[in-house]
Amino acid sequence: MRLQVTPTQTLMVEAAEIALKHGITAYDGCYVVLTMRSQKI
User: Fold this and answer.
1) How many CB atoms lie within 10 A of CB 30?
2) Residue 27: predicted pLDDT
3) Could you read off the pLDDT of 9-39 as tens digits, one per residue?
4) Number of H helices and number of E strands within the chain?
5) Which of helix, strand or coil describes residue 30?
6) How far apart are CA 1 and CA 22, in angstroms?
7) pTM to 2 decimals?
8) How far apart are CA 9 and CA 15, in angstroms?
9) Is the dihedral of CA 8, 12, 33, 18 positive or negative?
10) pLDDT category of residue 40 using cuts at 50, 70 and 90
11) Residue 19: count of CB within 10 angstroms of its CB
12) Domain ranges of the chain
């Protein structure tokens, strides 16, 4: 299995928006963004 590196900086705008909307941390929001991008949501 190959891992893909994604700089946090490229996630932060979306992650912050998701975090504020759902009451989670920006850190957790980064994982949401990565999941959404990998599933093309």
Assistant:
1) 20
2) 97
3) 999 999 999 999 999 999 999 999 999 999 9
4) 2, 0
5) helix
6) 32
7) 0.84
8) 10
9) positive
10) confident
11) 19
12) 8-38
